[in-house]
Amino acid sequence: MTLSNLNGVPGREDAVREYVQQQLGGLVDDLRVDALGNLIAFRAGRDAPNGKVKERVMLSAHMDEIGFLVRYIDERGFLRLQPLGGFDPRNLFARNVTVQTRGGTLPGVLTPGGRPIHISNPEDRSKVPELRAFFVDLGLDAAAVRQQVRVGDMVTLDQQARRMGDLVVGKALDDRASVFMQLEVLRQLTGPPRHDLYAVFSTQEEVGLRGAVTAAYSVQPTIGIGLDVTLAVDTPGVEADEAVTRMGEGIGIKVYDSSMISTRWLVDEFVDLAEQAGVAYQLEVLSQGGTDGAAIQGSRSGVPTLTLSLPTRYIHSVTEAVHVSDLEAGVALLLAYLK
Length: 339
Ligand SMILES: [Zn+2]
Known about the structure:
Blueprint: H1 2-5, H2 14-23, E1 30-33, E2 39-43, E3 56-62, E4 67-73, E5 79-84, E6 95-101, E7 104-112, H3 122-126, E8 134-137, H4 142-148, E9 154-157, E10 162-164, E11 167-170, H5 173-188, E12 196-202, H6 210-219, E13 223-231, E14 251-257, E15 260-261, H7 264-277, E16 281-285, H8 292-297, E17 305-313, E18 320-323, H9 324-338
Parallel strand pairs: 3-12, 3-13, 13-17, 14-16
Antiparallel strand pairs: 1-2, 2-12, 4-5, 4-9, 5-8, 6-7, 6-9, 7-8, 10-11, 11-18, 14-15, 14-17, 17-18
Helix pairs in contact: 5-9, 7-9
Bound molecules: zinc ion.
Zinc ion binds near residues 62, 174, 175, 228 and 229.
């Protein structure tokens, strides 16, 4: 939950990186940060038995969340925004936000321009405003805003994470839930893993898998495993065939999304492993979307790659929700593979 509360849009992942770096103390053999801000943690593998190969396994979970940069400060001190990542404007009405300036943070309110309901006409009410119509009010006069805020400052949605039944709900479980999972794997993995392990905490996923691209080139893995969330639309108003995954039915083993087709033998290997280890899993086909796995798979001359997906309700809203038992299943499956 701490991880979800931290703020970090693409290219501004510093707070998340610092937190993860602290958590990794004593858990890894080597730790470095590359020019794109990826945090790359290394654990040396055991020597492979005769006739077997010691692979270089790269895991990747992204630290960034969707958010905004200040695009323009208007003459009255209202901020206009550049979205970073795929927002649905319907999820953005009347939101508390935080603006991260060079001197500190400022509270703000995000809302679309236009007439409120008391004075709106039926046509106004039937329209969903475009992202460009949203602005941030800081409650300050224009001069005070200009003094403190600069174009390029980060704007994030406010929402404290909380426990709700079997679910954890927060603003940035995409993909901090996988960041947590990766940390948990490093905590629970006692002794050297079966293969050389590179656990990458990547940057700028939400604007096109940019961190994972450079990380895959420097790590040069022989096997890639992306860790990200996927849709769980097991909620009212949607047919069963469009659910993609279901909450609480296990970790998703991705077969397909529009950015990658998981390497077939790795899918088979992970399915067999899950069955042997008694870990709940579900096969996932996502018609649209992409993750770090695609960047790894397409790097250099190609890398066999799989993505493990956490079923998540309400993705890209402030109420992103994951099921605790699916998180546990993800950790268990990764440990079964790496130990
Ligand atoms: Zn993601």
